[in-house]
Amino acid sequence: MGSLVPKLIAMGTRHRGTAEGRARRGHALMTSMMVVSTLLITGTALLDMTSQSGRTAARRLLNTQALNLAVSAAEHTLAQLQDDRDYAGLQATSLGQGTVACTVALVAGQPLYRQLTASASVSRAGLTATRRVRATVELAQLPLVFTMTIGSKKTLNIGGAVRANSAPVLNQGWVHSNQNLSVSSSRPVEGKASATGTISPGTASRVTGTTTAGAPPVEFPEITQAFKERGASRGAVWADLTVADGSTLPGKIAGNLTIATPGGATVDGVVWVTGALILNGPVAGTGAIVCDGGLSANTNATTPGGTPPNVAYISTLRSPTALDLSGNGQFRGLLYAPNGGIRMRGNATYYGSLLAESFDVGGGPTITRWTGLDDAPPPLPGSLKVLGWQEL
């Protein structure tokens, strides 16, 4: 008995140790499973959060892209409307993964107002974002600069025997400088004179109407690419062109254009000349000839006698002689060089406005503003006022 008891006690001790070990191992396994489960749940949540964050970022990117496209569509429509007040808007157009459109609507009771509504949608990876913007604009009447007889961005000196007047309505001549003005001509300005800067002493005595110093500067509208391309539907000539038979000019001439006698040419809308324009013959019709090079004109044979000056001659050249005029005959048409100068020699009579960055005048020309253009002008670069923008 004495030897058996210790053995039994020892066996019981061993059995208890084994059970406790099993319990400890079970607890460790359960703890490990709980930790793994917790990590799995946390990882799944993190993955879900990452996925949600990615979708949110994607939506934000698409919204930004759609808004930028809508604004771009509105700005494109504004540019078109500035040059063509009858522009009807941008039809739905695909651009990469997006589409854009812009409508132009009249505003009741406001004949010069237009309401532009632009929309854009962008789609990617099953997500789509759509944004809309609206702008209200006011179309200008004939831009103020085109109602002048002589208009200059820089200081203007009218001397010699220059005469500035108007027809068929008399005493509506207007000379203006966005800098300083001096009139010392032996023949008066039959109308008014103004300058953003100063007006020299003695000028008032050479002007039949009012003189105004410190006047607001007058805008000289720029010639946009959209304006140049308004005649694109009438075809193009990809070479220098000489016309002398009275035929109608195409919408674009990729080269120089020479208009010669006896028949000259006819214009119908805007004609874009990428080179120089040489006027040695008559021009009939209604329109505008825009040249990227210089314009030289012989005033002895530019329009048929008695023809209203319904053609605008425009040079975009940045040169003091962008418009080079000579001769002693008649010239009918509005002359415009917003970035260059007009050089005049001779004693010609000009029926139409002369508007440029600068002037170099010699001789005794008569410049007669044609008041009929106020109501029926040829195609001219316009201006508009944006009254408000909003996102819809």
Query: What sort of overall outline do the alpha carbons produce when their principal axes are compared?
Result: elongated
Assembly category? single chain
Helix and strand pattern: HEEEEEEEEEEEHEEEEEEEEEEEEEEEE
Give the proportion of residues in helices: 10-25%
Low-confidence stretches: 4-16
Strand-pairing-aware structural class: alpha/beta
Task: State the main characteristics.
alpha/beta; single chain; 2 domains; N-terminal domain of TfIIb; elongated; 39% strand; 5-stranded antiparallel sheet; 392 residues
Describe this structure in words.
The protein is an alpha/beta fold and 392 residues long. It has 2 domains: 71-139, N-terminal domain of TfIIb, CATH 2.20.25; 144-374, no CATH class. The protein contains 2 helices and 27 strands. The strands form 4 sheets. It has a 16-stranded parallel sheet that branches. A 5-stranded antiparallel sheet has the order 1-2-3-4-27, covered by helices on one side. A hairpin with a 2-residue loop joins strand 1 (89-95) and strand 2 (98-107). The longest helix is centred in the N-terminal third of the chain and has 80 residues, at 4-83. It is elongated, with a radius of gyration of 38 Å. The model is unreliable at 4-16 (pLDDT under 50).
Write the layout of secondary structure elements.
Elements: H1 4-83, E1 89-95, E2 98-107, E3 110-124, E4 127-139, E5 150-152, E6 156-158, E7 163-167, E8 173-177, E9 181-183, E10 191-195, E11 211-213, H2 225-228, E12 236-237, E13 241-243, E14 252-253, E15 257-259, E16 265-273, E17 277-279, E18 283-291, E19 295-298, E20 311-315, E21 323-326, E22 330-332, E23 334-344, E24 349-351, E25 354-361, E26 366-370, E27 384-391
Parallel strand pairs: 5-8, 5-25, 6-9, 7-26, 8-10, 10-11, 12-14, 13-15, 14-16, 15-17, 16-18, 17-19, 18-20, 19-21, 20-23, 21-23, 22-24, 23-25, 24-26
Antiparallel strand pairs: 1-2, 2-3, 3-4, 4-27
